[in-house]
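Quick check before the chapter quiz. The format below is the same one you will see on the exam, so make sure you can read both the input and the output lines.
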Amino acid sequence: MHLVMFDIDGTLTETGKIDEECFVRSLAEVCGFADVRADWSSYKHATDSGIFHEICLARTGQSPSVAEISRFRQHFIDLLTAVSSQGAFAPIAGARQLLCDLAGGVEHRVSLATGGWRDSARLKMASAGMCFDDHPAASADDAHDRESIMRLSMQRAVERHRGSFASTVYIGDGVWDARACRALGIPFIGIGSGVRATRLTSEGAVRVFQDYSDADLFWESLDELTQAA
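Here is the expected output.
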């Protein structure tokens, strides 16, 4: 049995841009933080909890309280909910079918490891026609750093499926995904095009796809990685 672990924003759902806009808007409306640097790759931990913690520390000199985190997170999710009510979020092409095929097969299992908060990830996937709770998952609620999130996702997959995996492959769209995979020694498949694809390749992606529309080619690459494990 092989584990295929997915990021969500930009990997399963077309929500990277709207997520960024709602996050920055929430920082202004809840915390009064303007002129926020939105290049998430420049932060120590490119996760919702990690970024919020770093910005609060830089702006106020102290870490956010539990109440402050909760208030910010809820406002952020409320903004995402309002946007999704105007029109459903789109899945990355082929993502829904790929998840179904992987989860329904005998050789692979799926887990989720997202740098977003759990409730926002659940909302985005549901809006795009997928179910977050169908799969073992870890999120920014669990840790600031992506490596810990990925380790916990793998652990929860082992617990749910009651056995270890012969190999693990991670699929994501950010340079932070590639770097976390490199740190953990996990093969990384990138999702992106143009400049993003070039950067993912330079960061160590073994393959980069624009989306999952060429299912045969994607499965071929996945098989090559799992057989090499």
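If your answer matched, good. Residues 16-86 form one domain.
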